Amino acid sequence: MSTTQPSSKKNKRLHKKSLSLNAQNGTTLPDDGGERTVRKLRLSKALTIPDGTTVSEACRRMAARRIDAVLLTDSNALLSGILTDKDVATRVVAEGLKPEETTVSKVMTRNPIFVTSDTLAIEALQKMVQGKFRHLPVVENGEVIAMLDITKCLYDAISRMERATQQGSAIAAAVEGVELQQTSNVSAPNTFIETLRERMFKPSLSTIVGENTKVAVASVSDPVYVAAKKMRELHVNSAVIVMENKIQGILT
C-alpha cells in the first residue's frame, strides 16, 4: 500500500467537507477575473473650478454637489491642486482667514498625486493610506475624468475580505472536522481552531486602532475655529464634540 494514500484520503475528506459547507452557506469562490482596477469602482464625476475662485464660492459649489473635495485648474486648464473640507477647516477656519477674500490657490494642496483608470484599486488605496489623504484625481490622457474617494476603495476591499472570510470559515470548519477525527483529545483542536478563526477571520477594532491613536475633543460651547485648530494640531480629520464628558456629536 502506498504511504501517501492516508494523506490523499484526508485531503479528499477536507475538500468534500469544504465544498459541502460552501453549498450550505451559499458561498462560492469569487471570480473577479484578476485584480480589480480603478475603472471597475464607482467613480464620482470630479468638480473642477479655476484656482482663482474664492474659498467661499468653492465651498458653496461643494455643498451644492454634496461633495467634500474639489479640483483646481490653472489658467491653462491644467490640474494645479485640490481643495478638501480638511483644507478649509485647518488652513482657513483655524487660521482665521476670511473665506470670501481668500482664493483657493492660497490654501489648496498643490500638485496632487493622481491615478489612472488602469491603476489597481488596492494600489490606489495604498497611495491614500500612505499619503494620509482621502481623495485621488483619476486622469486619462492628461485629462481629469473623475475623483476617487477612499471609501470606494475601502468598500471594495472589505467586500473582497468578507468573501474571503466566508471561504476561510468553511476551510476552518473542514480542518476542525479532520482534526477531530485524528485525535481523541477534543478540547485541544477546538481551542486551536477557535483561536485560528478569531485571529484570521474575525479581526477586532484593536487591530486597526492603535494605542497611541489621537482624538480631537471639543466642547459644544467652543467656537468652530477651536475645534479646527485641535484637528490641525493632531493631524486628524474629525473632532468629537462633548458636553459634560458625554459625546454629543462629531465634527468632520
Strand content: 15-25%
Silhouette: flat
Number of helices: 7
What is the element string, with H for helices and E for strands? HEHEEHEHEEHHEHEE
CA radius of gyration is: 25 Å
DSSP summary, beta strand count: 9
Secondary structural class: alpha/beta
Terminal CA distance: 69 Å
Strand order of the largest sheet: 1-2-3-4
Largest sheet: 4 strands, mixed
Helix-residue proportion: 40-55%
| Unreliable segments of 5+ consecutive residues | 1-33
> What is the overall pLDDT average?
75
Structure description:
The chain is α/β, with parallel strands linked by helices and 252 residues long. 44% of the residues lie in helices and 17% in strands. The protein is built from seven helices and nine strands, in the order αβαββαβαββααβαββ. The strands form three sheets. Strands 1-2-3-4 form a four-stranded mixed sheet. A three-stranded mixed sheet has the order 7-8-9. Strands 5-6 form a two-stranded antiparallel ribbon. α7 links the parallel β7 and β8. α1 packs across α5, α4 packs across α5 and α5 packs antiparallel against α6. The protein is flat, with a radius of gyration of 25 Å. 17% of the residues are buried.
